[in-house]
Each structure stands twice: as structure tokens, then as C-alpha cells.
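Colleagues,

For the teaching module next term, I've prepared a clean inverse folding example: a structure given as C-alpha cells, and then the sequence designed for it. I'd like students to try predicting residues themselves before seeing the answer, so please don't circulate the second half yet.
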């Protein structure tokens, strides 16, 4: 045992330069590893490298892989007739004329606005942003942002025949979010909405696409 220790001491003495270099290298490597671990630890602590969370049903509203696919149809619409139906003695006497006129004029001002999934301006707008904007600008009523949340507002209207001007109408047009589409009922089986194919337009309940996907209506009490 003593001989082995003596041999090691002799070896160390003969290779001092080599051993010094070896110790210096090991020290540098150790310092580098410690710094790397510390940086990694700090990044985790302050969530600098936090992985992006997966989309859930709640935020799938703006998920490109499940867009609103509601098309427009070619139903001819006479705007003058719609205005005439609103401007009736009954509406004038009830005091509803001003609100209805404002809403219709606001809808007309957005006609042909391009569709943009997640958009909320005249540069591009989606269905729920359209209904939200019309109610806010025309009658100072604030709706929730998504079609699914708007579906929970106001009074439930089960039958199509019970719908009135200004009611929200909902359709099943998406896979992960139901309802996936919303519009504003105008009367005569017509509703205004932001169509994914033609932008803001007026369509008919009589089209096979919308009649088969209708989910119900909601009447906003404030309006």
C-alpha cells in the first residue's frame, strides 16, 4: 500500500504540468455545467421557456383548423321593403321605430364587409363580432364576443315563427364549438350575418343549409 502511494506521488511530481492542466480543464467544465443549470433553472422559474398551451374548446373560437363555414346564398333582398316593414304605424306608436331603424341602417353600413375569422372591423369581421358591433353601435347593448356566449344571453326563442326583428339566430356550422354561427333576424325569413364565403350579407332561412342547421334564437331584453 505504501509502495502504491509512493508511486502515485512520484507520478504526480513528474507530471505536474499535465496534472495542473487536467485540474484546470475539469474546473472549467464544472463551472460551465453549473452556469447552464442555473440559467435553465431561472428560465423555468420565470417561465421564459414556458411551452405554448394547446387550444381548448373555450379558445377554439379563433382556431384556424375549425373555421366557421357558413356560406351565403343568392336570395334576392329588397332593402326598401325591409325599411318599409319597419316603418309601420305600429312601430311608430310603440316607440320602437328609432331603435329598429338604427339597427337596420347599421347593418346596411356593414354590407359586403369582408369576412375575417377573429376580425372585428370593416377591414374584416366574423359573425359574432358583427352581431356584437351592430348591437353596440345601434342600440348601445353590449353582447359577449363569441357565438357560444351570445347563445346564453337574453330570452330563448324556440320556434322560428316567434322570431322578431333584432333577435339573434344561431346555427351549427362548426365541429368543436356549438353554435358556430350567429346572425340577426330581419323578418320575412331573412337574417343578416357575416358569411364566411361572401362577408356581411343577408340570407334566407329557406335555404337548405341554414334550415337544417338552425339551433334557435335569443331575444335580447334590453332591445
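(Answer key — instructors only)
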Amino acid at each position: 500500500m505504501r509502495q502504491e502511494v509512493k508511486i502515485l506521488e512520484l507520478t504526480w511530481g513528474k507530471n505536474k504540468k499535465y496534472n495542473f492542466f487536467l485540474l484546470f480543464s475539469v474546473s472549467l467544465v464544472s463551472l460551465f455545467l453549473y452556469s447552464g443549470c442555473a440559467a435553465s433553472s431561472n428560465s423555468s422559474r420565470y417561465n421564459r421557456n414556458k411551452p405554448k398551451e394547446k387550444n381548448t374548446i373555450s379558445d377554439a373560437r379563433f382556431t384556424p383548423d375549425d373555421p366557421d363555414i357558413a356560406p351565403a346564398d343568392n336570395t334576392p333582398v329588397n332593402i326598401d321593403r325591409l325599411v318599409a316593414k319597419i316603418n309601420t304605424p305600429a312601430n311608430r306608436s310603440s316607440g320602437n321605430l328609432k331603435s329598429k331603424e338604427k339597427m337596420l341602417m347599421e347593418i346596411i353600413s356593414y354590407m359586403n364587409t369582408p369576412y375575417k375569422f377573429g376580425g372585428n372591423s370593416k377591414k374584416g369581421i366574423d359573425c359574432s363580432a358583427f352581431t356584437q358591433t351592430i348591437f353596440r353601435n345601434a342600440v348601445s347593448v353590449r353582447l359577449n364576443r363569441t357565438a357560444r356566449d351570445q347563445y346564453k344571453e337574453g330570452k330563448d326563442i324556440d320556434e322560428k315563427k316567434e322570431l322578431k326583428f333584432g333577435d339573434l339566430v344561431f346555427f351549427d356550422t362548426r365541429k368543436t364549438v356549438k353554435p358556430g354561427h350567429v346572425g340577426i333576424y330581419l323578418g320575412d325569413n331573412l337574417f343578416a350575418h357575416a358569411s364566411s364565403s361572401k362577408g356581411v350579407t343577408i340570407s334566407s332561412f329557406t335555404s337548405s343549409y341554414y334550415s337544417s342547421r338552425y339551433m334557435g334564437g335569443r331575444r335580447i331584453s334590453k332591445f
